[in-house]
Structure formats: structure tokens, C-alpha cells
Design a protein that fits this description.
The chain is an all-beta fold. It is about 0% helix and about 55% strand. It has a four-stranded antiparallel β-sheet with strand order 3-2-1-28, with no helix packed on it. A four-stranded antiparallel β-sheet has the order 4-5-6-7, with no helix packed on it. A four-stranded antiparallel β-sheet has the order 8-9-10-11, with no helix packed on it. The radius of gyration is 19 Å and the shape is globular. The chain starts with 6 loop residues before the first strand and ends with a strand.
Amino acid sequence: MATQNQKFLVYIGTLGDGARDAIFVYLFDTSTGAMEHLSTTTGLKHPSFQTISPGGRHLYSVGQIDDASGRPDGAVHAFSIDPATGELAKLNHQSSRGVGPCRVSVDLTGRYVLVANYGSGSVAMLPIQDDGSLGEAVDFVQHQGSGVNPARQEGPHAHSIVLDPANRYAFAPDLGLDKILIYQLDLDRGRLVPNDQPWGRTVPGAGPRHFDFHPTRKYAYVINELDSTFTAYRYDESSGALRELQSISTLPEEFAGTNYCADVHVHPSGRFIYGSNRGHDSIVVCGIDQATGELTYIDCESTQGSTPRNFALDPTGAFLLAANQDSDTVVTFRIAQETGRLEPTGFVAEVPAPVCLKLIPAP
């Protein structure tokens, strides 16, 4: 649990109309659930997703730049974090080697940034220099294939890339392929090497999007955008292999509208998993059986806004912060530690088109 008056810096990436694009820095107070605006970094285009380096000294954000011919190209931006204020200072940017970059991750040694390009269906690996800036990509993998949904799965769409807790494997859910591509992480050569089990599957048309691990490292979970489900896997951390256990809906039985899932996070206790529903505009709560890894539906809590594309758990597991992209709000909830249910704190921060939330302890 969070200690009284513990505070966190919250870095909020946005995906608006271009004019409102920025990365916002807020101070989150766990004694009340309130958020206070500290600073804003502008001059970026579509800085939707971020990641923070081990030690909290640097932040890396996806974005969009124009190439020499004026066409949009994906980028990864590097920033230093002021240790006293949390404010960002731009270092440099590099090409993401694709179109529409989304999720970014930093390996646990702090040597590489990994990025998934949704639009072109690829992943890339970029080296981190001594000062925290980025070098040009040293590895690139283009995904191949398509899925059963002609409108959304006409080709590959890598939606995220996530490292396992041991920093040995990278997992890239591809919405267009109904696969979670698995790579061995070669830090010596800077390479993403296809694993012996090269992918884990979802049901056809599921559209895997984001991925998270159970703290015991025995289980892993993907949230599927197109059919509004979680898929649970048994995870073998020695081989990087995934074995499907179960699929379960993220929606209450009575809901009959259109919905697209987005984000997933396992609670630090390992007892609960949370996912965001866009359409139903809620956070689903499921319990996790510690012996089997299987899920049981508990509840769906309204995010009190529209299109909760992403959300975050504070590092202690005491609070959940939901980013309502289309209603321009971030809403804070307390987490009931025994049941996993969410209770609104009453505090709402007004942030233009919020998407990604990253928290680190405040100075």
C-alpha cells in the first residue's frame, strides 16, 4: 500500500488533433488521489506512448516526423528528466523504422529501446547512448501475414512490444496476425532473434493488443482489441514459451454495444487483472487464480469519461488512473485491496486527449 502523503510524477502522453499534442507532467498525491499540473512539453506530433529508463533519468516517447519528401514517418524521442522538478528536456530523436509507432519499452539494463510500429507492422531496436540519447536502429523485423478480419487484419499491425521480467525475451502482440511474436533479446549484438517457439496464438479475429506478466512469472495475459477478451497463458520463463489456458470476456453479459479493448495491467499483488473497454467506457476487474492463472470476472467500473484508451496502476497498487482520450480527463480510483474493485476518489484532471500514463516516485 502507498504510504501517507506519498507522491508520484505522472507523465501523460497524448494523441489529439496535432495542435494539442504534448507530454504533460503531473504530481499525484496518494493521500487524496489528486493530481496537480507541473509542466508541459510541446512541439511534438502524436507523442502517445512513453517509457522511462531504469533509474528514472530518461523518458522515451513515440511520435511522428516528416521525412525528406514530407511524408509522415515514425520516430522515437529521447528526453532527460530533471531530478528536482521532473521536467523534460529534449535530447534527440531517431526513426522508428516504420509508420504509426505505438508502444515503447526499455530493457532492464538501460541499453536499448524497443518500439512497435502499428501502421506498418514491424518492430525495431534502438541503442541508448551514454547521455541517454538514441542511436539509429540496430535491428528491425517486418512482420508478415494477415488475419480473418478484412477491415482490421489486412496485414500485420504490431501493437506493443514488452520485455519479460528476466529481460531475456521480447513479446510483440500483433493485432493483424492474431499472434504474440516472441523474440530472444540479444543484448550483446543488439538483435531480436526469433524464439524457438516463435509466437503464441489467440483465437482468429481476436486482435491481440497489450500484454502483461503475473508477478510470479508463471502466467502472462494479453488483452484482445477486436473481440473484447483476455487470453491467459502459462509462461515458461526458461524457454519463453506460451501455452494458452483460457479466454474470458472483458464485458458484462448484458452489454450488446460496440467495444474495443485497449490496455491491460496485472495488480502488483498478482490477485487481480485490469483491462480497459472503449465503447463500454469502463475498466474491467478480474480475479486471478494463483494456482492455475485462470481469470474470473468481478466487475466493470465506469471510467466517468469517454474512450479509456489506457490506464495505469501506481507502483504500490493502491490507485488506478484512467485516461479518457475523447473526454479529455484523467480520473483517479482507489483499489480495494481485498476485492480489487475500484472506488472513484472524486478527483478529475483535465488533460487534452490523454493516452499513456507513466508513474515514478516524485523527488
